[in-house]
Amino acid sequence: MNVAIAGENSFIVYFANQASPIISAQIDLTIQAVLERLGPAIVDLIPSYTSLLVIYDLDQVDHFWVRKQLYAAINQPEKITPGSSASTELPVYYSCESGPDLELIATRSKLSIEAVIDLHQQGCYQVYAIGFAPGFAYLGEVDPRIATPRLSTPRLKVPQGAVAIADRQTAVYPAMSPGGWNLIGLCPLKLFNPTANPPMPIKVGDQVRFRAIGKAEFLHLGGALSDNLFGHSGVI
User: Fold this and answer.
1) Contact between residue 109 and residue 85 where contact means Cβ atoms under 8 Å apart
2) Number of separate helices (H) and strands (E) present in the chain
3) pLDDT band at 157; cut points 50, 70, 90
4) CB of 177 closer than 8 Å to CB of 133
5) How far apart are CA 34 and CA 229, in angstroms?
6) How far apart are CA 23 and CA 80, in angstroms?
7) More confident position, 99 or 73
8) Digit-coded pLDDT (tens) for 121-147
9) Long-range CB contact pairs, 109-112, < 8 A, 24+
10) β-strands 87-94, 207-212 pairing
11) With contact defined as beta carbons under 8 Å apart, do 11 and 54 qualify?
């Protein structure tokens, strides 16, 4: 692990070169240790795949003291194993109607559409990072048989709740936005609410599973479909 300066009031802690459930759990435990040591001096803690950005209040603490506390926090966590994080199940309406790239993935992987759906919902996915847009969680890793590169031309319009694959990552779009991931279904649940506490039902380090549902259940849970749901492809 390495601690590097990231700005006048921030450090970034690097834990490894490659993401894994153990590294994710180590980052989560380090967050707890940093909060215990720095408390109100912390402005924000931003975890990612293999790193943790620590932003602190210069009016309360100085650079040298924070660096010392970070090294102490890094060395404090006990040996951990993955599996102790929270788990969330998300319902998904998988279909060509709700996932316009399902057929593309099936053709590319030489699998049936049903097999692609089964492989996606059989996985247990680690929340490695949250970014791109508020509430957008990067989940990994999908079965290598359905791993699919990003679209060469992003869509200008991806609807809220779109479940997608890009390479070996999967995600749910928390709000309508442009996007270049391959869309395979829709989740009817709202995954980001800025007025809620917490604003997201999942956090970095959690586990996510997907459960296939039918169209009727999707609509019953608040999902919506329309003729222009996915807009048109185009360069952003």
Assistant:
1) no
2) 5, 13
3) very high
4) yes
5) 44
6) 9
7) 99
8) 999 999 999 988 889 999 999 999 999
9) 109/145, 109/146, 109/148, 111/145, 111/146
10) parallel
11) yes
The torsion region of residue 184 among left (phi > 0), alpha (psi -120 to 50) and beta comes to alpha
Number of structural domains in the chain: 2
Summarised one tens digit per residue, pLDDT across range 164-208 is 999 999 999 999 999 999 999 999 999 999 898 889 999 888 999
SS3 state at 218: helix
* Residue 172 to residue 145: CA distance in whole angstroms: 20
SS (H, E, C) 70-123: HHHHHHCCCCCCCCCCCEEEEEEEECCCCCCCHHHHHHHHCCCHHHHHHHHHHC
Both 146 and 208 in a single domain? yes
Which of 178, 155, 162 is CA-nearest to residue 223?
A: 162
Strand partners, 148: 167
Start-to-end C-alpha separation, the chain: 37
Indicate whether 95 and 212 sit together in one domain. Answer: yes
* Domain-embedded: residue 228: no
Predicted TM-score (pTM) of the model is: 0.81
CB-based contacts of 140, cutoff 8 Å, min separation 6: 19, 125, 126, 128, 168, 169, 170
Q: Are residues 26 and 70 in the same domain?
A: yes
Q: Are residues 116 and 39 in the same domain?
A: no
Q: Specify whether the CB–CB gap between 232 and 112 falls below 8 A.
A: no
